[in-house]
Here is the input.
Amino acid sequence: MRSYRELFRTPEFTPFFLASAAQGAALTIGGLALATLVYRTTDSPLLSAVSMFGPQLAQMLGATFLLSGADRLPPRATLSSISLAFAACTAVLALPGLPIGAVFGVIFLQGLIASLGGGVTGGLLNEILPKDGFVLGRSVFNMVFGLVQVVGFATGGALLTLLSPRTCLLQSAALYATASLVFRLGLTARSPRSAGRPSVAATWRTNALLWSSRPRRLTYLGLWIPNGLIVGCESLFVSYDSGAAGALFASAALGMFVGDLTVGRFVPPALRARLPVPLLLLLATPYLLFALRPGTLWAALAVSVASVGFGASLAQQERLMALTPDELAGHALGLRGAGMLTMQGLSAALAGSIAQLTSPATAMTAMAVASLAVTVTLGVASRRDARDVRDRKRGVSPTDFRAPVSPE
Here is the structure.
């Protein structure tokens, strides 16, 4: 499957796509509104960053205890319920006078609920589309999320000049409710992909199985850490320049859209497998410009160019699916999403802490340097693994190239 026409002719793909777009818009507008509300209330870069990316901090906890439900719950009912729960949580965040502690309690609850969403969404997409359509379908989802972010952050920034953050949060809640309705009416009721009840034990067993393979481990780490550190940079846009935060977020989303379009639609599979490291290097390098504290125009340009590198995740997810049995696809993608979002939340907290002690520009530069270091390290480890596999196929042991050890 290589054309968008074929993709949208696939039954159920269009309502799935539209509901996900509504969720993306809700997340974008609500996240910017909440970060702005917290920053105006506390004047803290740390709390502002964590409020926007805080739900991600609960993702790994959910992945540890709840993720077996990604393949063991009916997908339509699960996705509809998750959107409805997010609508309720977002409406609570809009309540006047809500204490800051309660705000973060609701954010934590959202993260727990969301820990199932990535796995259920990825597994259902893998089920709706044929094998050769997964990367194209995933790229369309990433692209629409990028476009929705461009429009959502631009719209959210404009709305925040006219309306209060609490009013914008209520608009976000309405979008979540709309997504819940589209999931319910547009998708077919399906049985779970795996038998058995969701449980903590089943989650732990499958997590251990997925983590037991070194190639999968390296793929997961590449999906989680480099881009998570860069999202830590993004979490400081509000404190770097609150007036231009919407423009910076929109620029990041535009770059992500370009990267996903290029990698998902135009790059052949053989070349796609070689792109993760170069794209992850591109993702971090432009953020080094923030050491010079650029103005809005140069900052937006750097952010846009860097975000093209988010296209690396498409090639990495394709590799993950090639290394994973079909019956564990939802769980594997859910662990990918939960780990990635948890890393983003941790990075937001780390970046906010550094910014609290130094400045947002210094913190963004430090996070970019860390991302580059991790990408280079993982790239070297992956190349060493690939070389060892080639040697084994030729009947040559890697130990044949090591110096002999003298007996003691």
